TrEMBL record:
It comes from the Bacteria. Residues 38-59, 69-85 have a biased composition (Low complexity). Keywords: Membrane, Signal, Transmembrane, Transmembrane helix. This is Predicted lipid-binding transport protein, Tim44 family. The keyword Aminoacyl-tRNA synthetase does not apply. The keyword Protease does not apply. Residues 182-326 form the Tim44-like domain. Residues 1-25 form the signal peptide. Residues 38-85 are annotated as: Disordered. It comes from Mesorhizobium escarrei. The chain crosses the membrane at residues 85-107, 114-138. SMART domains: Tim44. InterPro entries: NTF2-like_dom_sf, Tim44-like_dom. SUPFAM superfamilies: NTF2-like (SSF54427).
């Protein structure tokens, strides 16, 4: 079969586009990104949206935490089945009426018996419908009487960073306080696992952001071990090793936090967790290790990034980076 010149051009263009995309992906894979780490028992749960990161966070892609809890919950939860036509009380009534009509037909009542059966069936449906309406009415009245009145919830410290002092629209963002101080975003953790964040904790998170980024840019493995969990150190060290293998170096400097807030904070046994949404600027470039030439990024133009960082501490020790997620 002869291929036209236009078809050959289209195939060539598609091939060049695919090759260019693969080259771009190589640089993108070498740079920091993705969602990895552990958040304790909430590793595979969604993070509540915040003012800084209103979009849903990407699920954790790489974690040493087994996903057995989520799988067990999925297996233990029975699949919701739509009730069939002949199920429940109405089905039992209908089966009884049909059986009675069939017996009457076989005993010689003929179509007269069938007509009587249909009339009885209609009466049964009307009675069943009336009973259902009465039950629904009493249920709605009971739920209305049992609903507690919602009292006003005092606001706590819910953000930190450069824009922390900016006025907030209380009507639109009143649901983003730190867990343990105010209400949650439609989901409240049990009282025994909530913890309260202090201004000192928020300052530590801001400091960890700068320290981790700069340690990564310096390829400072000792610094990363001091600032992050062993699991996170393994992932970051793997990225640094890949960069070295590809002959490039990722330099990160001038990290500046623009806005941040706490998505959730909780305790598991002797370990505390806190997930913070961070929006920051930094000079992030990729250089050739031999020549020092920039191969990706701009040295004089900061890039803006929004990420979800989870920190953990044990027995009241120092906070360490435990997970990074992309919104």
């Amino acid at each position: 079969m002869m291929i036209s010149r236009s078809s050959r051009f289209a195939v060539l263009f598609a091939g060049l586009f695919l090759a260019f995309s693969m080259v771009t992906a190589d640089y993108a894979e070498a740079r920091r990104g993705g969602s990895f780490g552990s958040r304790g028992t909430r590793t595979f749960q969604s993070v509540p949206p915040t003012r800084t990161a209103p979009q849903p966070a990407a699920p954790v892609e790489r974690s040493m935490t087994p996903n057995s809890a989520a799988n067990n919950a999925a297996r233990q939860t029975p699949a919701a089945q739509r009730p069939g036509m002949f199920s429940g009380l109405g089905g039992s009534m209908m089966r009884g009426l049909l059986l009675g009509g069939l017996i009457g037909l076989l005993l010689g009542q003929g179509f007269g018996g069938l007509a009587g059966m249909l009339g009885l069936l209609l009466q049964g449906l009307l009675i069943g419908g009336a009973i259902m309406l009465i039950i629904r009415f009493f249920r709605s009245q009971s739920a209305r009487n049992q609903a507690p009145a919602m009292a006003g919830v005092p606001r706590g410290i819910d953000s930190f960073g450069r824009n922390a002092a900016a006025p907030r629209e209380a009507d639109n963002f009143s649901s983003f306080p730190i867990p343990g101080i105010g209400s949650g975003f439609g989901r409240t953790a049990p009282a025994n696992d909530q913890i309260t964040m202090t201004p000192a904790d928020l300052d530590t998170f801001q400091q960890r952001l700068t320290e981790v980024q700069e340690a990564f840019g310096r390829e400072d493995h000792a610094g990363l071990r001091r600032l992050a969990t062993p699991e996170m150190v393994s992932y970051l060290s793997e990225e640094l090793a890949d960069n070295a293998k590809n002959g490039i170096r990722n330099e990160v400097s001038n990290v500046s936090l623009l806005e941040a807030d706490i998505a959730e904070s909780w305790r598991e046994d002797d370990r505390d967790y806190a997930t913070a949404a961070l929006r920051y600027e930094s000079l992030d470039v990729m250089r050739d290790r031999a020549s020092g030439k920039i191969v990706a990024g701009e040295a004089d133009r900061p890039t803006e990034t929004t990420e979800l960082w989870t920190f953990t501490r044990q027995d009241g020790g120092d906070w360490k980076l435990a997970a990074i997620q992309q919104p």
